Structure formats: structure tokens, C-alpha cells
Amino acid sequence: MNKHLATIASLKPFYQKKIDVYLSPPIHYRMRCEFSYKNNSYVMFDKNNDYILMDKFNIASELIYNIQPKLLKLINENQIISKNLFQVNFRSNNDGDILVTLIYRKPINDDLCKSIDKLS
């Protein structure tokens, strides 16, 4: 028995009406994603705190999924931007807007601000 049928069966004693189940799409449903940045790659950590390189993250919205490799290439081509980069956060919406936040370990300086302005 699959998960949603098991859930419906467990609710049967409490609710007798028909329950409709709407499944999420299998890919491109995540509108926000957060990645650490390590070894010139986006990474996530598993339950043992080991990092996993995230070359592709197909559960991310198509907008995030498409911009990730392009942004990573630009970050890695610029030592000023990549140095001390700690985390990259992505937020997108259904209107086609995206917000990317670069988080650094150390305070940012004017050179970094200028480089990021050129990047955007």
C-alpha cells in the first residue's frame, strides 16, 4: 500500500467522506534552496555531516535550476567573489522573479561589492 492510501486508511475511523490527494510534481517544485559553498561547488550536508556536491538539484524550481550553473561559473571565475563565500541562497516565485543571496564568512569590502554589482 502506498503512503497516501495508508494515510487515508488511518483517517477512516475519524472521517468517512472521500479524501482527494493531490501529488506534487516529482521535479522543479522547490522555490527556495540553500547551499553551502565549498571546493568551487554548491554543497549540502548529509545526516553524518559529510558534504555532498550538488552539481544538479532538479527539485529546485526551473528558474533556480537553470541559473545555478551559470551563477556558479561566474562565482568561480572571480576570486574576489569566491573568496570567503560561505553560502548561496536562492528564492524564486511563480512570476519569474529570483533572489540570490551570497553569504560571506567575513565582512565584505568595497572591491567585493563592486564585483558583485558587475555580476548582477
- Outline, from the CA principal axes? elongated
Q: What is the alpha-carbon Rg in Å?
A: 20 Å
Structural class of the secondary structure composition?
A: alpha+beta
Give the low-pLDDT segments: none
The N- and C-terminal alpha carbons lie at a distance of 49 Å
Instruction: Going across the biggest sheet, name each strand in turn.
Output: 3-2-1-4-5
* Named CATH architecture: Beta Barrel
Average residue-wise pLDDT: 93
Overall number of domains: 1
CATH class equals: Mainly Beta
- CATH third-tier fold name: OB fold (Dihydrolipoamide Acetyltransferase, E2P)
| Share of residues in strands | 25-35%
**SSE order:** HEEEHHEEH
Tally of DSSP β-strands: 5
Helix content: 25-40%
- In terms of quaternary structure, the protein is single chain
Give the helix tally.
4
**What can be said about the biggest beta sheet?**
5 strands, antiparallel
Structure description:
The protein is of the alpha+beta class. It has a single domain (25-119), classed as Beta Barrel (OB fold (Dihydrolipoamide Acetyltransferase, E2P)), CATH 2.40.50.1070. The chain is built from 4 helices and 5 strands, in the order αβββααββα. It has helices at residues 3-11, 62-76, 79-82, 110-119, and strands at residues 32-38, 41-45, 51-53, 85-92, 98-104. Strands 3-2-1-4-5 form a 5-stranded antiparallel sheet, with helices on one face. A hairpin with a 5-residue loop joins strand 4 and strand 5 (98-104). The chain is elongated, with a radius of gyration of 20 Å.
